[in-house]
Amino acid sequence: MGAEPSREVTGIFYHPSFSRRSYLTTGRRLADFPAALDPLLRRPEVRLFQCVPATDELILLAHDPRLIPQVEADPL
Amino acid sequence: MGGVVEAMGRVAAGQLRNAFCFIGAGGHHAGRNFFGGYCCFNDVVIALRQARRAGRLRRVAILDTDAHHGDGTRDLVQDDPEVLHVCVCDSEYASADGTKLDLAAPDPWSAGESPDRAYLTLVRSAFPVQAERFRPDLIVWYFGFDTHRGDYGDRGLTTGAFLGLADLLLETAGAACGGKLLVVLGGGSRTDLATTLIPPIIARLAGVPAP
């Protein structure tokens, strides 16, 4: 990831999979990204981060353990 | 969801000025033991609990301007007095302690001022004063663009309303919590709207000209 970002930087958190199938109602609403951000990403005030997957441990900070298999089994 | 967790941690720690989070699935309709509305897990609440666990913040103010009520988020923070949750939706509600508020969005088809102006007036009348009084460590804007004219949660809004909301949130975060603002993408279906709306909002966050 390189050097720590400056507190003067705006972070953009994104993953390429979001542009292939983002938000389950709509498919490819983010199809134009990240290309649509190119002019911004050339600026030093902006930095792109690639999202990492969440762990079950994180999910359990808010959710009942039984929710995880229910989400996994959802056909959407 | 992992991106929202990392983004909130970095903004809370002062490693980033602010942040914009794209998402793969929604979050605000996911409660402790239910999910729906194309939301799986509640990214915002998970992120705030992780940030608390890391000692990076305690108090968070959330403004939800997605078209539909953030019922999952409300379920998870209902008994948490250190979360201000203001949701612009279809109903009016105020909890006894004043930290959970629902604001009925204006009817865009009623006579009177423009939908953009009416919506911004409503939010401006309620959120900044509540947030500044609450003194959060960080503000989250749950940003759905489904309220845009022609999208599935149509409130008659146009681009100006969303840019106005971005300016209002930046101003409020500047006054309430040193500018610590996290924008999390919510609903909205149209590719053309995402492409038109998101880059200028990020430009505002960064304080640079819109592309």
What key attributes describe this structure?
heterodimer; A: 76 residues; alpha+beta; 4 helices; B: 211 residues; alpha/beta; seven-stranded mixed β-sheet; 6 helices; 40% helix
Cα shape of chain A: flat
- In N-to-C order, the SSE pattern of chain A is EHHEHH
Gyration radius of chain B (Cα, Å) is 16 Å
What's the overall geometry of chain B?
A: globular
DSSP helix fraction of chain B = 25-40%
Mind summarizing the main beta sheet of chain A?
2 strands, parallel
Secondary structure: helix percent of chain A: 25-40%
Task: Give the overall average pLDDT of chain B.
Answer: 95
Name the poorly predicted regions of chain B. Answer: none
Topology:
The complex is a heterodimer of chains A (76) and B (211).
Chain A lengths: L9 E5 L1 H5 L17 H4 L4 E5 L5 H4 L7 H7 L3
Parallel strand pairs in A: 1-2
Chain B lengths: L1 H11 L5 E4 L21 H11 L6 E5 L6 H7 L5 E7 L3 E2 L5 E5 L10 H20 L3 E6 L15 H19 L3 E5 L5 H16 L5
Parallel strand pairs in B: 1-7, 2-3, 2-6, 3-5, 6-7
Antiparallel strand pairs in B: 4-5
Helix pairs in contact in B: 1-2, 4-5, 5-6
Give a verbal description of the structure.
The complex is a heterodimer of chains A (76) and B (211). By secondary structure, chain A is an alpha+beta fold. Chain A has helices spanning 16-20, 38-41, 56-59, 67-73, and strands spanning 10-14, 46-50. A two-stranded parallel sheet of chain A has the order 1-2. The termini of chain A are far apart. The mean pLDDT of chain A is 87. By secondary structure, chain B is of the alpha/beta class. Helices cover 40% and strands 16% of the residues of chain B. Chain B has six helices and seven strands. Chain B has helices spanning 2-12, 43-53, 71-77, 115-134, 159-177, 191-206; strands spanning 18-21, 60-64, 83-89, 93-94, 100-104, 138-143, 181-185. A seven-stranded mixed β-sheet of chain B has the order 1-7-6-2-3-5-4, with helices on both faces. The two termini of chain B are 27 Å apart. The mean pLDDT of chain B is 95. At the A-B interface, strand 1, helix 2, strand 2 and helix 4 of A face helix 1, strand 1, helix 2 and helix 6 of B.
